[in-house]
Design goal:
The chain is built from 8 helices and 14 strands. It has helices at about 30-40, 45-50, 105-110, 145-160, 190-205, 270-280, 295-305, 340-365, and strands at about 5-10, 15, 25, 30, 55-60, 70, 85-90, 95-100, 120, 130-140, 165-170, 175-180, 210, 220-225. The protein has 2 domains: about 5-125 and about 240-280, no CATH class; about 130-235 and about 290-295, Alpha-Beta Plaits, CATH 3.30.70. Helix 5 packs across helix 7 (about 295-305). The chain is about 30% helix and about 15% strand.
Length: about 375
């Protein structure tokens, strides 16, 4: 039997938490209401990463151990004080996505089963020019945490060299994220190319431990996933709880503490006390917007030396200047043959099939969401 709903008064709003005793993390003993209270305790920091941004709702309606589904369209039964922004996707579709501006909105989406927060890197008043470049350090299997920290410090050197300020945080999973506020002058493709230039620069600085190679068969060490900056990609934001058994948190860090930090130290149970004691290490991020000109100049130098674009994710249409979209070990034809009308038709067929599968997964998830 479901427990009676609990109504929370948050500032001047009321938010109803349905089934508050539902266990979301068995091992950590965290219920839905515990999760809401965690986010309220760190709301100032969590809102810094999501405020005024459209966000996809990643809903774990059956707890952290069960499969989640992404809900891109804002629920029809949302409160009238929650606003939306219309986002267009690479497929040509559009959707009204939730924009969270305050702690009440944060509690409301957590009640839907949103364990982590997944905002887009744009503000609601300008959906075409990101204000954040995201560096996602993704280790290949078997890489130790110490090596990921080492690559993060190399990334800081590369950012310093182009006059940008990076704000590190644990990903809450296996890696480290570095967010960089940027001026809103550049388009998604330009931001992605800047991220690619940065990834390649880090690889040049630390070739034995870092890679910018997209294909998994070519990777080693820690991959800098430049494609996280492609339009419609989202990354778990600061103070997001991640669906690991210990209810681990994506936690902002200072650069001074990063070399010795341990990811498992930051959980739902420990981060609120840390936040109360030291505040948010990422508090200055909005005052540190920088320019991409130096990274884009690095892109131009790479191109002059024959190092052009790198592969895009498979659900994006083939881009001008992109290399053949085929694993290097499977390439059997000349590169130009992969750009033929027939090849493009096959890619479009595969891309459309991926879109249909994703839409079906969303529909199936939404159908079961009443269980929350």
């Amino acid at each position: 039997m479901k427990a009676e709903p609990e109504v929370l008064r948050i500032n001047d709003r009321e938010v109803t938490i349905t089934n508050p005793g539902k266990v979301f993390f068995d091992e950590a003993g965290v219920t839905k209401l515990d999760l809401v209270r965690y986010y309220l305790a760190v709301a100032d920091g969590a809102l810094r990463g999501i405020r005024d941004r459209p966000m996809a709702l990643k809903r774990f309606v059956n707890g952290a151990a069960a499969e989640a589904f992404f809900q891109k369209r804002a629920p029809d039964n949302r409160p009238d004080w929650l606003r939306v922004a219309t986002l267009s996707f690479p497929s040509g579709r559009t959707a009204d996505e939730i924009v969270v501006d305050d702690a009440a909105g944060l509690a409301w989406i957590v009640n839907l089963g949103c364990i982590d927060l997944n905002p887009h890197p744009v503000r609601a008043d300008d959906m075409d020019h990101p204000d954040e470049l995201r560096v996602d350090l993704d280790p290949v299997p078997g890489i130790e945490w110490a090596q990921i920290r080492d690559v993060a410090m190399v990334a800081k050197e590369a950012l310093d060299a182009v006059g940008l300020v990076g704000w590190p945080k644990t990903s809450g999973s296996r890696g480290i994220h570095i967010n960089i506020r940027i001026e809103r002058h550049w388009t998604y493709p330009e931001v992605r190319r800047a991220a690619l230039a940065l990834a390649r620069d880090v690889e040049r600085r630390a070739p034995t431990i870092a890679t910018s190679r997209w294909w998994k068969e070519e990777r080693h060490g820690v991959f800098l996933d430049y494609n996280q900056n492609a339009k419609d990609r989202t990354v778990a934001s600061a103070y997001s709880v991640r669906p690991l058994p210990d209810a681990r948190v994506s936690t902002p860090l200072t650069w001074e503490e990063l070399p010795t930090c341990e990811a498992e130290a930051f959980t739902v149970h420990t981060v609120p006390a840390r936040f109360a004691a030291i505040g948010d290490p990422g508090a200055g991020i909005d005052d540190a917007a920088g320019s991409l000109e130096a990274l884009l100049e690095l892109t131009r130098r790479d191109e002059a030396e024959g190092l052009g674009d790198a592969p895009w994710p498979p659900n994006y249409r083939k881009q001008e200047g992109e290399p053949p979209r085929v694993q290097p070990s499977r390439q059997r034809r000349a590169a130009a043959e992969y750009d033929s009308p027939e090849a493009e038709a096959q890619r479009e067929k595969s891309r459309a099939a991926m879109e249909r599968r994703f839409a079906a997964a969303q529909a199936a998830g939404a159908a079961g969401a009443a269980a929350i």
